[in-house]
Amino acid sequence: MEEKKMTEKESLELVSRMIQATRQNLVKGSGNYFLVYGYTALVLSIAIYALFYVTGNTLWSIGWFLMFLPMSVIAFRKKKNKPLVVTYTDGMVKKVWQVIGSLFSLTIFVMLVLMFIAGKCDFVLMLPLSLLYAGIGTAITGLVIKESCLVYGSFVGFVFAVYMLMSYTLNGGTEMIWNLYFGLSLTVMMVVPGHVLNNKIEKL
């Protein structure tokens, strides 16, 4: 039996449908990954900085561990709203964020080990590192689903991350203002593109 070969037009249409399905799954399947994480980061950045400003206690930075909460929310919503179609591009995006998630976990593990060895550790350094990881994941996702605002928005995160790391090397320490920089970066990198993506899906 002879296999039917797809024409170039049919191939492009198939790829286009796969990309569109992935966009819809990112928005409808979990309440929009970007909005969930972006707004969580924005609220935490303001709250942690305000608490530090009032109390002067840098231990409030531990509040950033609440960023793991959206994972539970997304996992719960995905069980309730499973996508009807899971495409190849869905798998690609999922694997990208699995790698990014592994980098987050590995970084925290290494920092904890070093803290026990050296007796001290500045977890505020997780902010620029997280921006780099999240920026890479967001940029790749934007390229896969052909959403330019995700790609360009991630550049803001990269700029702030490099600025923080350079500031750390030049000034010899972290600054609490980094919390606000992180919230601003995630707003541009995830919240704004998340709303753009929602708006495009609603118009379909």
Summarize the structure.
This protein has 204 residues and is mostly helical.
Polypeptide structure, described:
It is a single chain. The model has no long low-confidence stretch (mean pLDDT 82). The protein contains seven helices and no strands. It has helices spanning 8-28, 33-55, 69-80, 88-118, 126-144, 148-171, 178-202. The radius of gyration is 19 Å and the shape is elongated. It is mainly α and 204 residues long. The protein has one domain.
SSE topology sketch:
Layout: H1 8-28, H2 33-55, H3 69-80, H4 88-118, H5 126-144, H6 148-171, H7 178-202
**Number of E-state strands:** 0
Look at the helices and sheets and give the structural class. Answer: mainly alpha
* Whole-number total of structural domains: 1
Helix content: over 70%
User: Which band does the percent of strand residues land in?
Assistant: under 5%
- Radius of gyration (CA) equals 19 Å
- General form: elongated
The averaged pLDDT comes out at 82
**Unreliable spans:** none
H/E element string? HHHHHHH
Distance between the termini: 39 Å
